[in-house]
Amino acid sequence: RDIFGLALQPRFNCHGFHYVNYTIPGPAPCSTPLVSSISRFTSPNGGASFDPDSEFFVLTLRPDFTNLNAGDLAFGPD
User: Fold this and answer.
1) Where are the alpha helices (DSSP H) in the chain?
2) Phi and psi at residue 15, to the nearest 5°
3) Distance between CA atoms of residues 20 and 24, nearest Å
4) What are phi and psi of 9, to 5 degrees?
5) How far apart are CA 31 and CA 64, in angstroms?
6) To 10 degrees, the CA torsion angle through 26, 24, 62, 16?
7) CA distance 32 to 64
8) Which of 11, 41, 51, 64 has the fewest C-beta atoms lying within 10 Å of its C-beta?
9) pLDDT per residue as tens digits for the range 10-28
10) What distance in Å separates the CA atoms of residue 61 and residue 39, rounded to the nearest whole number?
11) How many whole angstroms separate alpha carbon 65 and alpha carbon 75?
């Protein structure tokens, strides 16, 4: 797995949510070996660690290409 982006929710202190853009292996048989995923995770202790069992898939993309080059996450003022 490769991590391309990580962003803390603007109200992280209230909810403990952070979002990660990363690659996961694609389903077999599949012409795309990697799938790009954006997932939300929860921190039970103010960011000292994150609970992997809290993963909530927000978006999964299966690109038409065999490689993934980049990704980013950010929260705007809205």
Assistant:
1) 12-15
2) -110, -25
3) 12
4) -60, 140
5) 8
6) 150
7) 7
8) 64
9) 888 888 899 999 887 776 6
10) 12
11) 27
